[in-house]
Design brief:
The structure is a homodimer of 617-residue chains.
Chain A lengths: L12 H7 L14 E8 L5 H10 L7 E7 L8 E2 L7 E6 L7 H15 L4 E5 L2 H7 L2 E3 L2 H4 L21 H13 L4 E6 L1 H16 L5 E6 L17 H22 L3 E6 L6 H10 L3 E2 L2 H7 L3 H17 L5 E6 L2 H4 L1 H15 L4 H7 L2 H9 L2 H7 L16 H18 L10 E6 L1 H4 L5 H19 L5 E6 L9 E5 L34 H16 L20 H5 L4 H18 L6 H22 L10
Parallel strand pairs in A: 4-5, 4-7, 7-8, 8-13, 9-11, 9-12, 10-11
Antiparallel strand pairs in A: 1-2, 1-3, 2-14, 5-6, 13-14
Subcellular location (chains A, B): Cytoplasm
Function (chains A, B): Regulatory subunit of pyrophosphate--fructose 6-phosphate 1-phosphotransferase.
Pfam family, one (chains A, B): PFK
Chain lengths: 617, 617
């Protein structure tokens, strides 16, 4: 066993204080008795994918939602779990470290022990590699002592971050059987939860008695859908990054001579960058989703930034801060096409050093135009999910260089008469994801850990722990479980003329919704952010006093509570029934029939597989 | 006037709360009456420089120390300042932004208005350029409202950061005369305070009635000497950087696959890096001062890191964190020599693009060996103080690349059998210096601002505001003023055979004292830091609760209180006098004479100009 995992750590004064913090539980999870109510069976957001997903997941697609309620809740169909036999549960970190992950383990441990002291929680040491190799560490109060409310995944570590190949899945199955596990909890993001869903299906097929549960833990905040409002770690990471961005904004304003180009970790989607922009008010945010929608080329973006620099120079401003999500590079059409071509050549077995000579003339011209550092980075081996190594591609440097070149050209041609453009580049990511988790992330993760236990106690397989109504205080949170298969979509690939192979169903990262309220909030302020330097400093993450209980804009602005709205619909349907009882007038019945015919027709059309290409919510 | 300065800002919840915080004053500054006690006249730490400095500063060298005491203090020689005519004072930010700078302005404003409501405080807008161009903003309660306890220098801005050329000094003189200033307060670090001292001398020579006062504000923490214990901003910057470093440490430990090379802002000296290492316990710190002392080449350092990587690999550890002060590049002998040669060629008027072809064969060989990005950075124009642009030279990338190459070589030759070495590089600086200042920096800066007023009220010219005994609570702080000329040293340059021109006296950055207690603390722990991953997370800067009142190790560990010890000496001398009174025995007198003869001889030898090359304390 590696000596570094699970050993007690020396804590700073603040860490000690944080270790003493005990998250609150929502009312439904307080006490030892919890009711489970099952909702309707689930489908997926894109009707055209339902068939494909149901074929791939015959055992786990269409399972009903589960809601956890107080023992005293007056819900006729809810069942109380009365039996609490000892459980053996395994838990594994299977994704990038995200602040709060440790609290999932802690919450799970507490819930397990609360219901039966003979239950055992085994942590897999060294992430998925530990799972395959059956390297475990029994979680105890002593082991947890210095990891409660602490950042990182260093209690257990993480490694390959995937359970996908036949060998990997087989190894996981063997481990669960050998260790006689009743449950396996997988902590991770989009990819890990897709893997968890696959594992649940495989286990069900193989009649393995281990139930698989996923937990949405990813700083990217891109595991968002009808059932999942936000992810553990997103709040902390956005707050740490916003602190740094706003420090840089104040720095820019003090010296008035630099443009800072800041790239932010967050994978393909731009949630982190959008939230940070709303918290710190930088001058510009180049949103990947906007670029993709408008099909802006790298030259369009450069021109856009240069025009802004020039407009600011006319107001005698020679400083600014530009945010760039790391996924931007894949949103720029020509760079995406180039990356795809490189990826295709690599799949044909062409060595990295020979790839550039095999590119098509068009791609080759673009490749040669790019500065050497970017060329090298584009050629890096792709990630386990086949996407480019976004964290290693310095898009911020590329843009800063292109802007500088263009500004110099404008200056030489007399089109720009201001001072010389100077840029400084940053990449913020690694320095945020090991942070002490915010109170919100501590609470959210701890509650999710508890829910995992109740999912297993209810004997459910192939579920993800969920908490909704998160923008409200903990005592209003709603706890439940949703099958990840209901969050899946199917990507269709256009491989060549006529060929439209269908991808494997998976949970895909949710893009920033350009029709959503969060984006709308940014759009309203974008032009004043650009010109007026309304920099705002949320300050360092606080654990006491003002700001300690703040939540992200992303969470607070959106009308989430999908579950609540589903319940509201049920109420309407019940009301129609109660009004249109036998004995009601002809007119009332006629009106009801006519209205409902129209409603059902509209909904049928909208839900038909042929209706548009739905984006996951 | 630029529209960006002094305008009210939108504050976050935390910023608002911080704006309400009111720093405490030490007892001596409370109330409206303050006594001034003058100590002995000062000299400088290096006796061999005294003559040169006294010649360059005939009006301001040798001035006595001033101590500010309570009105009720029982000190016979102290004088009470009773007259408080209205003063016109100017204040200018003249150095890099450092958290807490705004509070100097606030403290000064409050002290000025407390003693005479007709006094006026003018802020120079746009730093030194504003000073030369007489662009001012009258500081009022309204102007200050959103800048109290806030980071950055954006209330007034900063620009050229020097007042040195004849034209600049003349412009400053004209401004002070035109604006009828009684005092000019210069906020900055080592270079700015040297400039302030020069300005004071010039003003005295020119019979200009404006008194010049300096304030030690620099995140580098390198304005350290007998009189100055620490600088405004150092505490905050070390704490923000330590937060990020420890986040990265936890990240490294969670994933166990990367070595992080982190370069820290802090100019030539390594104080910031040393303090951050003590706060966050990374695996390695390559201290510039150690490298310079041991004359380690870039290859020695590379080998040193590679050996550490290999030793860790033998314990199955493939991660780690290495701190690198930005000044390291100038501490490595061959890189320093190369930089000097480049600098010399530039001074001969050789264009940047031609410099490489004019290098000596030795320097040229080294230059060609270096990766292109470093070559380009070494050729950047030097800073205003003639040193290399340390913030732009990516030494961390150079080292990471050299280590990778060497580890690959060892692997290929079978000397290293571990996993492939992977590095990720960071530069932390800009993201820290705009931070909300810590409580310590808020208090220290505010008190210094008050002291500036009392220096001016006492009619002193050519002084720096000082607070000592800082490691104790504010009510134990001692306030005073010391002439910057007493902090100066003279550098001797060896320009060629026989030629030893003497540099201008100046306050030079204090290097980390390799015989000091702070360094000793690191040395004791260095090997366990290296191997045992004792990462410690001080967490984000807190304003309430645990950690909010923490101070730097650098401040707390050292026996500072030089002023206290000077007083202690006086007590010994008085005691000898009181014991050896006329009428004492022959033996007592004999013993006293013999002892004192020996003491005076030792001290005379040690204080002779020929005795060693003294480092400033």
């Amino acid at each position: 066993m590696e000596s570094d995992f699970g050993i007690p750590r020396e804590l700073s004064e603040l860490q000690k204080k944080r270790a003493e913090y005990h998250p609150e539980l929502p009312p439904c999870l307080q006490g030892t008795t919890v009711r489970v109510e099952f909702g309707d069976s689930t489908t997926c957001a894109d009707p055209s994918s339902a068939h494909v997903i149901s074929q791939a997941f015959p055992n786990t697609f269409g399972q009903p939602l589960a809601h956890f309620l107080r023992a005293t809740a007056k819900v006729p169909d809810a069942q109380i779990i009365t039996e609490h036999p000892p459980l053996r549960v395994g838990v594994v970190f299977c994704g990038r470290q995200s602040p709060g992950g440790h609290n999932v383990v802690w919450g799970l441990y507490n819930a397990i022990k609360l219901h039966n002291l003979d239950s055992v929680l085994l942590g897999f040491v060294g992430g998925t590699e530990g799972l395959f190799a059956q390297r475990t560490l029994e979680i105890t109060e002593e082991v947890l002592a210095t990891y409660k409310n602490q950042g990182g995944f260093d209690l257990l570590g993480r490694t390959v971050d995937q359970i996908r190949t036949t060998e990997q899945v087989k190894a996981a199955l063997t481990s669960c059987q050998d260790l006689k596990l009743d449950g396996l909890v997988i902590i991770g993001g989009v990819t890990s939860n897709s893997d968890a869903a696959q594992l649940a299906e495989t286990f069900a097929e193989a009649k393995c008695s281990t139930k698989v549960v996923g937990v949405p833990v990813t700083l990217n905040g891109d595991l968002k859908n009808q059932f999942v409002e936000t992810n553990v770690g997103f709040d902390t990471v956005c707050r740490v990054n916003s602190q740094l961005i706003s420090n840089v904004c104040i720095d820019a304003l003090s010296a008035q001579k630099y443009y800072y180009f800041i790239r932010l970790m967050g994978r393909k989607a731009s949630h982190v960058a959008l939230e940070c922009a709303l918290q710190s008010h930088p001058n510009m945010l180049i949103l990947g989703e906007e670029v993709a929608l408008s099909k802006l080329t790298i030259f369009d973006i450069t021109k856009h930034i240069c025009d802004a620099v020039q407009a600011r120079a006319e107001k005698d401003k020679y400083h600014g801060v530009v945010l760039i999500p790391e996924g931007l590079v894949e949103s720029i059409p020509e760079l995406y096409a180039l990356l795809q071509e490189i990826h295709g050549l690599r799949n044909q077995g062409i060595l990295t050093e020979n790839i550039s000579s095999h590119l098509s003339p068009w791609a080759s011209a673009l490749f040669e135009f790019l500065p050497p550092f970017i060329r090298k980075q584009l050629l890096l081996h792709p990630e386990s999910d086949d996407s480019a190594q976004l964290s290693q591609i310095e898009t911020e440097k590329l843009l800063a260089q292109l802007v500088e070149t263009e500004m110099n050209r404008r200056m030489n041609e007399g089109l720009y008469k201001g001072k010389k453009f100077n840029a400084i580049c940053h990449f913020f990511g690694y320095q945020a994801r090991g942070s002490l988790p915010s109170k919100f992330d501590c609470d959210y993760a701890y509650v999710l850990g508890h829910i995992c236990y109740h999912i297993l106690a209810a004997g459910l397989n192939g579920y993800m722990a969920t908490v909704t109504n998160l923008k409200h205080p903990v005592n209003k949170w709603r706890c439940g479980a949703a099958p990840p298969t209901a969050m899946m979509t199917v990507k269709r690939y256009w491989g060549g003329p006529g060929a439209i192979p269908i991808g494997k169903p998976a949970i895909h990262p949710a893009a920033v919704d350009l029709k959503g309220k969060v984006y709308e909030l940014l759009r309203q302020k974008a032009s004043s952010f650009l010109m007026d330097d309304l920099y705002r400093n949320p300050g360092p993450l606080q654990f006491e006093g003002p700001g300690a209980d703040a939540k992200t804009y992303t969470l607070c602005v959106e009308d989430q509570d999908y579950m609540g709205r589903i319940k509201k619909l049920q109420e309407y349907l019940d009301k129609v029934k109660s009004i249109v009882k036998p004995g009601c007038s002809h007119d009332v019945l006629k009106a009801a029939l006519s209205s409902m015919a129209s409603v059902t027709e509209v909904l049928s059309v909208m839900s038909a597989p042929s209706f548009g290409n739905h984006q996951p919510l």
